[in-house]
């Protein structure tokens, strides 16, 4: 009897689910389907138009990242920009002074992407042939995060004697990650431990959309590197856990590789294509 009761209950639950599914609203207007019930070709055309509109919304969403060729950008040099901290210990000491004066430090860094040979690369700065860092730094308490990262990018890359206001403009995208420093130590984590109520620093990484052409001037004491994603991936021993995680952060984006004339020359495998296949272009392999 127990087995029969279980089977009966299971059948009742399935019946209820089927009834609920039949009562759910269709994603395609039911009235339109009824009106075109005798004209299957018209209904099919309307459905294709409906799907095409949905496709357009998907392809213009934020999960597509355009990257321009590295050769599109002009790289120059300018006067050295001295580091505020000669050592890691000095940086932690200054962090402690900042915390006592202004509370938790806020740091913003930019992930700038270019491409070469059909593969995305991240622009990184190298100091003394040893330390790697993304362009950016701590921001002042009175600044918003966007204001802070824009000022830091200009500090790093603005050409000397620049008079063109466009060279000071940056398109800041979404925040891709935030790292927390619980104590006055070198360790940072991509989460805030539950027992930490007063973190010492919060670092955020923003995706920065570069224009098709731009001049970047690098301080003489820095070296600008374009590091491929495959070099960063699973390479915490060389670049540290924060930079080794960048390929994971970017994995949800579909990359479009743009040439010097602004034409899309390749697209990441798996990127959405038009329904009729009219926009097919060579895939990155």
From TrEMBL:
GO cellular component terms, A-Z: mRNA cleavage factor complex
Q: Quote the Pfam families the UniProt record gives.
A: NUDIX_2 (PF13869)
Q: Which Gene3D superfamilies match?
A: Nucleoside Triphosphate Pyrophosphohydrolase (3.90.79.10)
Which terms does the UniProt entry file under GO BP?
A: mRNA 3'-end processing
Q: Which InterPro entries match?
A: Cleav_polyA_spec_factor_su5 (IPR016706)
Gene Ontology MF, one: mRNA binding
Please report the name of this protein according to its UniProt entry. Answer: Pre-mRNA cleavage factor Im subunit 2
Species the sequence originates in: Neolecta irregularis (strain DAH-3)
């Amino acid at each position: 009897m127990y087995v029969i009761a279980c089977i009966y209950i299971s059948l009742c639950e399935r019946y209820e689910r089927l009834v609920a599914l039949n009562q759910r609203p269709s994603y395609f207007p039911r009235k339109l389907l009824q009106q075109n019930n005798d004209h299957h070709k018209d209904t099919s055309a309307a459905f294709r138009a409906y799907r095409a509109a949905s496709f357009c919304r998907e392809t213009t969403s934020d999960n597509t990242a355009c990257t321009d060729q590295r050769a599109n950008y002009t790289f120059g040099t300018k006067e050295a920009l001295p580091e505020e901290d000669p050592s890691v210990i000095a940086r932690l000491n200054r962090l402690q002074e900042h915390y006592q004066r202004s509370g938790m430090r806020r740091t913003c860094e930019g992930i700038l992407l270019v491409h070469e040979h059909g593969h995305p690369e991240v622009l990184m700065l190298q100091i003394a042939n040893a330390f790697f860092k993304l362009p950016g730094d701590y921001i002042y308490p009175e600044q918003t995060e966007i204001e802070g990262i824009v000022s830091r990018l200009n500090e790093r890359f603005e050409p000397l004697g620049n008079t063109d206001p466009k060279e000071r403009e940056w398109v800041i995208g979404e925040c891709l990650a935030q790292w927390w420093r619980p104590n006055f130590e070198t360790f940072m984590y991509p989460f805030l431990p539950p027992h930490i109520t007063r973190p010492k620093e919060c670092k955020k990484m923003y995706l920065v959309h570069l224009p098709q052409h731009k001049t970047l001037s690098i301080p003489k004491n820095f070296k600008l590197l374009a590091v491929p994603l495959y070099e960063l991936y699973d390479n915490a021993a060389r670049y540290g856990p924060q930079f080794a995680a960048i390929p994971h952060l970017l994995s949800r984006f579909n990359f479009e590789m743009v040439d010097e004339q602004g034409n899309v020359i390749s697209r990441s495998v798996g990127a959405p294509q038009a329904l009729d296949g009219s926009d097919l272009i060579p895939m990155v392999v």
